[in-house]
Design goal:
- It is a single chain.
- It contains 7 helices and no strands.
- The chain is mostly helical.
- α1 crosses α2, α1 packs across α3 and α1 packs across α5.
- The termini are far apart.
């Protein structure tokens, strides 16, 4: 939730996302582990923003990023980062469920369905090629 709030504020009013996140952490007297996880999520999204947005654009071709609701866009950015780039911290299905829940809480009436549909497309295209923690990566060289 902290990562979403920071990304949303930065996207909406242009405040530096790192400063926003630190302010939110301080204001909420956030647990250090939660704060560190939020920092990692925000940094991951920012470090992979171009491929995340490209993936998002391909998965929702009828919704240009400039016209997409900012809450939905940032929920999707977080989830795509977790599903495609950081899928060992949180299993993809959990990341998708959490994203849908965030969209329902912070987005519009159809945000949950929209986020679920886009992430279903993303997971079907990309995440299925990534190994899960329980599955070996068949492309990785064997010892």
């Amino acid at each position: 939730m902290l990562a979403l709030q920071a990304l949303y504020e930065a996207d909406t009013v242009g405040h530096p996302v790192g400063e926003v996140l630190e302010r939110l952490i301080e204001e909420g007297e956030t647990d250090p582990d939660v704060a560190e996880f939020a920092r990692a999520l925000v940094a991951g999204v920012l470090n992979h923003l171009e491929p995340i947005d490209q993936t998002l654009s391909q998965a929702a071709p009828h919704w240009p990023l400039t016209q997409m609701a900012k809450v939905d866009k940032n929920v999707l950015r977080l989830a795509i980062f977790e599903v495609l780039f950081n899928n060992t911290a949180v299993p993809p299905k959990v990341a998708i469920n959490e994203a849908v829940d965030l969209a329902k809480i912070f987005g519009g009436d159809s945000s949950g369905r929209f986020v679920n549909g886009v992430l279903g497309t993303v997971a079907g295209r990309g995440a299925s090629r990534l190994p899960t923690p329980e599955e070996p990566d068949e492309n990785r060289p064997r010892d």
